[in-house]
Amino acid sequence: MPSHRRPRLLAPLLLIPLLSSCFASGGGGDSGDDGGKGGDGSRLRVALAFPPAENLSPYGADATLLSRLGVTEGLTSLDANGSAAPALAESWRRDGDKAWEFTLRDAVFQDGTAVTPAAVAASLGKATGADPAPAALEGVTLTARGSGDRVVRITTDEPDPVLPLRLSSPSLAVLSKDAYAKGGRVDPLGHATGPFELTEVNGATSASLDRFDDYWGGRAQASGIDARFIADGTARANALRTGELDIAEAVPVAQAASLDKETRRDTATTRTTSLLLNASSGTFADAGLRAAARAGLDTSVFAKDVYEGYGDPGAGVYGPAVTWAEGKRTKPVGRADAGKPDGETVNLATYDNRPELPEVAQVVKQQLEKAGFKVKLTVREYSRLEGDALDGKFDAFVLARNTLLDTGDPVAVLASDYTCDGGYNIAQLCDEGVDRAVADAEKTADTAKRQDAALAAEARILGSDAVLPLVHQRIITGVADSVQGVILDPYERTLVGTGTRR
Question: Cα separation of 186 and 59, whole Å?
Fold first, then answer.
């Protein structure tokens, strides 16, 4: 079995407030300008589906919680087309194969200190030294240093043509020096740069945020945020219906009909729900049995029935929201012939933070049993499953994975999830052909050619039958009628920004 670094990554989670104009919003304008009236605005009541798992460290599971609440941001962000856009860096240029220079905008941290090249370089240095490293730095070694009053120069050991995309990752958020305590702990409270400042965190239950009035992108219209972490999807929907919430993320499809049409917003995302088969040990170490599992699945039922139309049938690692992949996907390469299950036992697992997944897993269980397997299903909260999944203790795992969450680079998810040394390789796949194809894609600088190379690598990964795409999700966000400016982000990195208000 290949060894894997265990990242502090809650992969099934969910751009920067700057991007509020790039994505569909919940109505109204997105400007943070209050017209000079000095109005304080109302506080927003927001429910998130996943509680903090790592004391709000930006390096893993909690990075997107911070970015979705408008607390953190990095040097860059993603625009609606998936390209790198300015954030704390207003511009950048490449200098040779291994160096980039990023010119900073005039900004301050929430503790009042200036965002300087030295501060940015120190923050990125802490990220590169984190153990385990953030998923965005998978396979990359970079060094940052200040260069003059406004420039940060970043060099990489090997050419990295997508570094601006990589730096958009929520896990590479820039924090002030006082955020970094001895022992490696990172404290974002009062040390970030976004329009909202964390003021209090009550364990895995709730958090309070106040508006950061000196935010470089303009004063937020809401005076603050009262965030609640509610893992139960029905409870989130009920709290929205009864007026306890203004915004509820990830409303279960089973609850969608109970919300007024004006209250529910569905967004095509880059999230794919797949069945991952353990290719290194157990039943599915046999490629023929993986092929048998694939042959036994009817993926059409997931989008139609389980997701009640809020999804598209699984076609590959990348779904319809990844528009450049449309019509360019090639057939899987190297698929084995289906073997005979003959009652082979399968230990199947999934998590209930996303309420559709247990139902997906039940359907998968039924279909695999019809194909001749014996299936035992385990369902737990995600944080109680991740370690076992990464250690290869399950034969099969139903996972909802945002393919462009970590970096925005389509190759990055292939490297982390499906290569021998990938840090999030739940499928335990270790295939020389796949590794070669992914390595070739990583070396390709031209955007269009890199996309083609990513699809070529995807064809080999799908050919292994270690990942069986089931459905490409649409995410339902519940938004009260009184709320405007919610950011409906296909990358699931941002939810509120300067223009979000009620």
Answer: 9
Three-state DSSP class for 89? strand
Whether the pLDDT of residue 58 is over 60: the answer is yes
C-alpha–C-alpha distance, residues 414 and 433, integer Å? 13
Please name the amino acid found at residue 411.
V
Residue whose entry in the numeric block shows the structure tokens 């690692």: 317
Q: What tokens were used for 139?
A: 């396979």
The Cα 473–Cα 401 span in angstroms is: 10
pLDDT exceeds cutoff 90 at 286? yes
Torsion sign (Cα): 385, 387, 390, 391: negative
- Residues near 37 by Cβ (< 8 Å), separated by ≥ 6? none
Q: Which residues of 285-309 are buried (b: 16+ CB within 10 A; e: fewer)?
A: bebebbbbbbebbebebbbeebbee
How far apart are the C-alpha atoms of 209 and 201, rounded to whole Å?
9
Distance CA 388, CA 193 (A): 36
Written as one letter, the residue type at 31 is S
Average predicted confidence (pLDDT) for the chain: 89
Mean pLDDT computed over 179-205: 92
Structure letter (DSSP) for residue 105: P
Q: How confident is residue 26, by pLDDT bands cut at 50, 70 and 90?
A: low
- Calpha distance 77→424 (Å, rounded): 23
| Closest residue by Cα to residue 124 from 163, 85, 161 | 163
CA nearest to 234, candidates 254, 210, 220, 215: 254
β-pair type (311-313, 467-479): antiparallel
Bridging pattern class, strands 396-402 and 345-351: parallel
Please provide the DSSP assignment of 242-289 as one string.
TTS-SEESS--HHHHTTS-TTTEEEEEEEEEEEEEE-SSSSGGGSHHH
C-beta of residue 280 within 8 angstroms of C-beta of residue 239: no
Q: What are phi and psi of 221, to 5 degrees?
A: -80, -30
Q: Which element (helix H / strand E) includes 437? A: helix 432-442
Q: How far is CA 62 from CA 188, 359, 370, in A?
A: 11, 26, 39
Rounded to whole angstroms, the Cα distance separating 356 from 342 reads 30
**Residues 323, 464, 326, CA angle at the centre, nearest 5°?**
10
More confidently predicted of 61 and 325: 325
